[in-house]
Design a protein that fits this description.
Layout lengths: L5 H4 L16 E8 L2 E8 L21 E6 L3
Antiparallel strand pairs: 1-2, 1-3
Amino acid sequence: MMGATPVHCGCARVRDFEVIDSYPFGMEFTWEKDGAPHTETLFKRAGPIPSTKMLTFFRYAAWQSHFWCLLQA
């Protein structure tokens, strides 16, 4: 009986599928400009990985910046 199964005959069909992995939290970059804080979201929460971004900074004086890991929604 096993010889009559669709798998044995080579006619079984497998649907195409894709696996997309995601990162469980987002990333933000914060800096001050003219005394006011500015925040930019670099990677959204549950975004696909691997993800990359290139950042370019033009600084004309000393400055501080912070990267934040967003653990909450």
